[in-house]
Write a structure and sequence with these properties.
The chain is α/β, with parallel strands linked by helices and 160 residues long. It contains 5 helices and 8 strands; from the N terminus they run αβαββαβαβββαβ.
């Protein structure tokens, strides 16, 4: 991490949403893209499990955000049962952008055009600090499991 860099426009929207929701973490601009939990963890110097991957799924045609530990893979059949839908599948980049206003690789848990139903991986509670994307592939912010659940209105669940 380096000196404070200007925030990309999507990250400015996320920052505003974070402040409105009473979140305390400051957005960090990473020197390189962090398209995976491993690349984000390497840049931040934390465990991969402390990275909250923001995965948008198409749940019977409706967006579903799953904030999962970077150490996990999402069991889509389990998530479908948990969410009470017939089918959960990876969303297309266009679906993600329409639902969140943000690109894949940078989807934040907040700052979307309208609320997105959110499930939060219980595993994230094992980490004192959790890092989540902030609307752009170069931006992240520190938070906690409890704060993620609160600011997203999310439901804590097991994802695998």
């Amino acid at each position: 991490m380096s000196e404070k860099l200007p925030l990309p426009s999507n990250a400015v929207i996320v920052e505003s949403a974070l402040r409105e929701l009473g979140a305390t973490g400051e957005i960090v601009v990473l020197p390189e893209k962090a398209p995976t939990a491993a690349t984000a963890a390497a840049q931040l110097g934390c465990e991969v499990g402390a990275i909250a991957n923001s995965l948008i799924f198409d749940a019977d045609g409706t967006p579903l955000l799953v904030l999962t530990s970077g150490a996990h893979r999402v069991d889509t059949e389990l998530i479908a049962r948990t969410a009470g839908v017939q089918r959960v599948r990876r969303a297309t980049p266009e679906f993600v952008r329409a639902a969140t206003g943000q690109p894949i690789g940078g989807v934040a848990p907040v700052g979307h055009p309208s609320p997105v139903r959110t499930l939060v991986d219980n595993w994230l509670s094992k980490h004192e600090v959790v890092w989540a994307a902030a609307g752009h592939p170069h931006t992240v912010f520190p938070t906690t499991f409890d704060e993620l659940v609160r600011i997203t209105g999310g439901t804590p669940v097991d994802v695998e």
